[in-house]
Amino acid sequence: MKYLITALVLVLAAPVPAAHADPATDFEDYLERAARSTGLPGLAAVVTHRDRVVLATGFGHDSDGNPVTADTPMRIASVSKSFTAMAVMTLVEDGRIALDEPVAARLPGFTMADPRHERITARHLLNQTSGLSDTTVDTEALRDATSLADYASRLRADSLADDPGTRYRYCNVNYDLAARLVEVASGRRFRDYLREAVFAPLGMSRSAVSDDELRPADGYNSLFGAWVPRPEMPGFHDDSGAGGVITTAADLGRWLVSQNGYGTRLVSAEGLRTMHTPSTVDEYAMGWAPDDAGRLTHSGNLFTYNAVQAIVPGTGHGFAVLTNGAGVQDDTYPVLEGLAAIAEGGRPEDPGGGRQAFELVLGLVVAASAVLAVVGVRRARRWAERRAGAARWRAVARLLPVLLPVAVFAAYPYSIEVVSSGRTVTWEQLTYFAAPLTIALGVAALSGLVVAFARVVRLRSVQSAR
Questions:
Q1: What residues have CB less than 8 Å from 193, skipping those under 6 apart?
Q2: Please, which residues have CB within 8 angstroms of residue 384's CB and are 6 or more apart in sequence?
Q3: 8-state DSSP, 111
Q4: Residue 47 backbone phi and psi in degrees, to 5
Q5: CATH topology of domain 23-343
Q6: CA–CA distance, 285 with 278 (Å, rounded to integer)
Q7: Which long-range contacts (CB under 8 A, 24 or more apart) does 385-388 make?
Q8: Which of helix, strand or coil describes residue 391?
Q9: Intervals of CATH 3.40.710.10 along the chain
Q10: What is the DSSP string of 142-159?
Q11: According to the 3-state scheme, what is the secondary structure of 21-48?
């Protein structure tokens, strides 16, 4: 009897196992911390696992002062490319598009000065291996196109950078031509086909490819740590297959479930594999690319918006992060990496602080440049007196150091183009998410010009007095 009593006491005294924590709580706690540490004006995210949405939520506010939720529409920029690839693949499996047949004969009005364009296929467009490049296409002439048909016709004077199928070059024209191919093959406007063949079957009721149908609030740019609301930068957005999709975190949850092969399937398993498989010349697939952690990802930037999505075919996880703010540093991918780490059982650190620190440094550069300009102007006469008797070339050589920031600023957009693998960069674009860097370089250049001008004026004055 005493053993029975002892056993009973031990059972009653044993700690009750804690209920298994809801994984959504870990994700939400992390996102709440990430929203604070990044300081983003609005942040929305979704996490999926196999056939279910684990969490879809939002933090912060939009430019109209409304709370950001899982149902807040935002532009997702180049994340749109995976949707365009899906639209093409549905038509491939319906027999109305062949991936490896040339598209020029299918697209009325599409011609180029380079005869090699006649060899471009749908696969080349989706793999970004068509030879189209920002370096050989006048992308500025495409910004005010009125339709995809008009867009395609504006390429008539342009050429290719490479033979089709031989080299990867990221170029938005590929996906806008793919969207035009969808229109021609389906007999429907791209926006209508995407809504009927992709959005509607998945239940993505808050998604569109036109702000006439779904209007996102204007986003923000970070300016030395302060978020400034900005109107959307003009460009070809409506019906754009390269970056036109407007959607929500909740809708992206349905999309990620399908992309992992669960729930409603828009194409066959083979079709999904085709879209997720890199081309023969680069790791880029069709609107997706593998990262170092084995995920398939794609990010997007549209000057006042940033977005990123990822799927993990091995585990069935999916992640998407959207924000209505853009700065010199994109925080969406670090946030996504944190979500992926939690899904794998990790405990990620908060991702924020980098943007704020970098913009603080840029602010100090602006202040230092202004101070040095004042000091340089005040000391210009002393500088001139020391060099009044020197040879002219020596005086000019002494001016070069203060003019170096001018040269750097003049080369600024071209330097960014080199860093971004040949993507076209305009001065207008550099006044958006890169504004703090642009201002810092501009003030440094202006300071150098002011000091150089003051020195030349003083030098001439001193020489005349002698």
A1: 87, 182, 183, 186
A2: 455, 458, 459, 461, 462
A3: -
A4: -125, 130
A5: Beta-lactamase (3.40.710)
A6: 4
A7: 385/462, 387/459, 388/459, 388/462, 388/463, 388/466
A8: coil
A9: 23-343
A10: GTT-SSHHHHHHTTTT--
A11: CCHHHHHHHHHHHHHHHHCCCEEEEEEE
Identity at 154, one-letter amino acid code = R
Look at the block and give the residue holding tokens 């991702």: 351
Question: Which residue has tokens 């910004």?
Answer: 143
Q: Please state whether beta strands 325-326 and 220-223 pair in parallel, antiparallel, or not at all (unpaired).
A: parallel
Q: Give the number of residues written for the chain.
A: 466
pLDDT per position in the chain (466 positions), as tens?
A: 333 333 333 333 334 333 345 689 999 999 999 999 999 999 999 999 999 999 999 999 998 899 999 999 999 999 999 999 999 999 999 999 999 999 999 999 999 999 999 999 999 999 999 999 999 999 999 999 999 999 999 999 999 999 999 999 999 999 999 999 999 999 999 999 999 999 999 999 999 999 889 999 889 999 999 999 999 888 899 999 999 999 999 999 999 999 999 999 999 999 999 999 999 999 999 999 999 888 999 999 999 999 999 999 999 999 999 999 999 999 999 999 999 999 999 999 999 999 999 999 999 999 999 999 999 999 999 998 888 777 777 877 888 999 999 999 999 999 988 887 778 889 999 999 999 999 999 999 999 999 999 999 998 888 787 6
Other C-beta atoms lying within 10 Å of the C-beta of residue 462: 17
Q: DSSP 3-state assignment of 251? A: helix
Asked if residues 51 and 202 have their Cβ atoms less than 8 Å apart, the reply is no
